[in-house]
């Protein structure tokens, strides 16, 4: 099969605010008394793309199959010198369960599959490769209004491509009571597109550039089993597990300059620092020896192991990775006659986090105002005090050190429900076919090695719901 595609999309939006309506029934802008003091805003985007493709596939004896795909695509989202790129993929598989030596076994499905191919990323701003401007009324001159840059053009901006290699196994046995699927993959992304900070003299704060190569390796597992299945009882158990590790293979000079800016940043949380051979999500901070009991100041550890009171961003080292060693879920579904009980747990382990709650709400808080009780109980106050946090009269933003890095292991009960199907003979006289009663709750508990308060901006939402569903 072969074909081609040509597409064009455009959007035009305008936004303004009018005020002073005397009745909610008169919503036309003509009934407003005035406009808001802010200027109107809007957007105008247009993209075009063209491509050709060829797909071939074959299956022999319902045992072996092969798929070949080739695509050549172009998009106006990229620079005029690099708008087209080739993409291809090859996939194959072996239905082992259809071999003669598998006859008589309790296996219904045993498939080995593998694939390799290139994928392209096109989810970017339409004008990322063009130089665009916006008029600014605050820059008014005698002959008109001045304009400021929105984006800086890059005619050589090219496609971000990912070479993905995958090998997988599908297994079903014992009449569907055991079902398993496992995948191992390696993804190499070249010409990685990221926003790079620009000098103020350029006129924009960031621009999109191809800055390097990244590799992702991972493993995914999905398992479902039915331990109990009879006339009255049925119990299903399931497990999912995912692991992904990334590594920077190559960075550009632009990203090295960005690293220097991120390294010297003294904000609340550390910014990423990208280095070849290391993870994109590595957490880098200055090692800390704790709070000095005599002075209430933090003691920093330099790269040579020496202790000092002077903070130096060049002493930052890796203290974990925000990307966990594993994430997934465990679910259970139990039925007894007309009752059904289901629950789902989510878990994560092996990741690290920088606890901003401690940095801003405890150590960086001003005790003169409403504050966490740990500000008074756990901060250094007098010489000789052994405390977790620095002196109480120092309300400056804490330095980015290992004291605020914690292991982020958690187990969360995301949902629990109990339902009952009302017998038909009770509801037929009301003209109903089916009726369900259900009690549903979420986030009953959250166990974690890192204590983080969300506060009032985004609190934990624990809800309880009762529902009645019926069909006529």
Question: Helix and strand layout, with pairings?
Answer:
Blueprint: E1 2-15, E2 18-19, E3 34-35, E4 41-60, E5 64-75, E6 84-95, E7 107-121, E8 132-141, E9 144-151, E10 160-173, E11 178-190, E12 193-197, E13 206-210, E14 212-229, E15 233-251, H1 253-264, E16 282-285, E17 288-291, E18 298-301, E19 307-308, E20 317-321, E21 326-336, E22 339-354, H2 356-362, H3 374-377, E23 379-380, E24 389-391, E25 405-421, H4 424-427, E26 434-442, E27 446-448, E28 464-471
Parallel strand pairs: 23-24
Antiparallel strand pairs: 1-4, 2-3, 4-5, 5-6, 6-7, 7-10, 8-9, 10-11, 11-14, 12-13, 14-15, 15-21, 16-20, 17-18, 18-19, 21-22, 22-25, 25-26, 25-27, 26-28
Range of strand content = over 45%
Q: Determine Rg (CA atoms, Å).
A: 30 Å
Segments where pLDDT lies below 50 for 5+ residues?
A: none
- The rounded distance between the terminal residues' Cα atoms is 46 Å
Overall strand count: 28
Mean pLDDT across every amino acid position: 90
Number of helices: 4
Largest sheet composition: 15 strands, antiparallel
Shape: globular
The helix content, as a percent range, equals under 10%
Q: What structural class results from the helix and strand content?
A: mainly beta
Protein name: TonB-dependent receptor-like protein
Organism: Hoylesella shahii DSM 15611 = JCM 12083
Membrane topology: Multi-pass membrane protein
Subcellular location: Cell outer membrane
């Amino acid at each position: 099969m072969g074909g081609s595609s040509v597409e064009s999309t455009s959007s035009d939006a305008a936004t303004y605010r009018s005020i002073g309506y005397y009745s909610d029934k008169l919503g036309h802008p003509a009934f407003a008394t005035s406009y808001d003091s802010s200027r109107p805003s809007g957007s105008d985007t247009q993209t075009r793309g063209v491509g050709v493709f060829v797909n071939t596939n074959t299956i022999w004896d319902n045992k072996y199959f092969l798929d070949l795909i080739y695509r050549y695509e172009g998009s106006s989202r990229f620079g005029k010198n690099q708008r087209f790129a080739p993409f291809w993929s090859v996939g194959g598989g072996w239905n082992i369960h259809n071999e003669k030596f598998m006859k008589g076994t309790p296996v219904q499905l045993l498939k080995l599959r593998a694939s390799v191919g290139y994928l392209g990323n096109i989810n970017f701003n339409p004008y990322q490769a063009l130089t665009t401007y916006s008029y600014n009324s605050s820059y008014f001159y005698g002959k008109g209004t001045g304009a400021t840059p929105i984006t800086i053009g890059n005619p050589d901006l090219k496609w971000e491509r990912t070479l993905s290699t995958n090998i997988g196994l599908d297994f079903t046995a014992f009449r569907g009571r055991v079902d398993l699927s496992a995948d191992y993959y390696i993804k190499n992304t070249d010409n990685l597109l990221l926003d790079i900070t620009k000098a103020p003299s350029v006129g924009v704060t960031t621009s999109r550039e191809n800055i390097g190569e990244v590799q992702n390796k991972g493993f995914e597992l999905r398992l479902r089993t039915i331990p109990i299945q009879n006339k009255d009882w049925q119990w299903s158990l399931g497990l999912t597990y995912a692991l992904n590790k990334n590594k920077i293979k190559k960075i550009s000079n632009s990203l090295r300059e960005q690293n220097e800016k991120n390294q010297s940043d003294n904000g609340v949380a550390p910014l990423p620092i990208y280095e070849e051979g290391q993870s994109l999500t590595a957490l880098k901070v200055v090692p800390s020896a704790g709070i000095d009991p005599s002075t209430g100041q933090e003691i920093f550890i330099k790269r040579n192991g020496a202790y000092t009171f002077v903070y130096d961003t060049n002493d930052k080292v890796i203290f974990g990775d925000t990307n966990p060693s594993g994430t997934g879920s465990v679910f259970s579904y139990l039925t007894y006659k007309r009752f059904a009980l289901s629950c789902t747990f989510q878990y994560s382990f092996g990741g690290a986090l920088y606890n901003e709650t401690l940095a801003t709400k405890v150590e960086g808080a001003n005790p003169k105002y409403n504050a966490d009780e740990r500000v008074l109980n756990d901060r250094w106050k007098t010489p000789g005090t052994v405390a977790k946090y620095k002196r109480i009269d120092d309300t400056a933003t804490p330095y980015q050190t290992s004291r605020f890095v914690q292991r982020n292991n958690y187990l969360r009960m995301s949902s629990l429900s109990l339902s009952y199907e009302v017998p038909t003979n009770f509801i037929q006289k009301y003209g109903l076919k089916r009726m369900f009663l259900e009690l549903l709750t979420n986030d009953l508990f959250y166990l974690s090695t890192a204590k983080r308060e969300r506060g009032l901006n985004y609190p934990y939402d624990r809800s309880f719901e009762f529902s009645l569903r019926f069909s006529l």
